[in-house]
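Now for today's protein:

——
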Amino acid sequence: MKRIALALGMLLMTAPFANPARADLVHRMSSSTQLTVNGAYTDSSRIGSTYAVSGNNIKVDTSNSGHFGALTAGSATAAPTLDVGTYDVNTAGSAFTFTESYTQGDAISAIGAGVDVTAGVVADMPSYGETLTMSGGVAGTLAGTIVSSGVTTVVAGGAGTTATGQFVTEIIID
């Protein structure tokens, strides 16, 4: 009886340590390449004609045009222009100030006119007051390969291109 109790006691003491071994293993490998060729674009904004005048002790010279500067009406394809006025000092011998500024606005281009793109390069663009132009990429020798051994190769292309190669390996042991 003592032997059975002793064997049972030993079994109960070692039972928590008798779990089966767990050795789950996950191994992943992946390769990738990404090749990008930028597109050409132009972003243009027409600016309008503006005229501003300010001063002190200044008057319009009525012997000529009879007005300070003024903008003309413009047309469907032309921006307003400046009609220059003539000025004189109001009180001779007294101090005076005079400031005048003028910005010539952009002409109005026909819809669809003004931008030509050839092989990713902007050949011409509208001549507006605010213009941002980006030439597109030229693929040229741009390339990316992955062989069965996992070796990744990327070859640079022309301007405006990117090539990225990546190899990832992951080992998980549970």
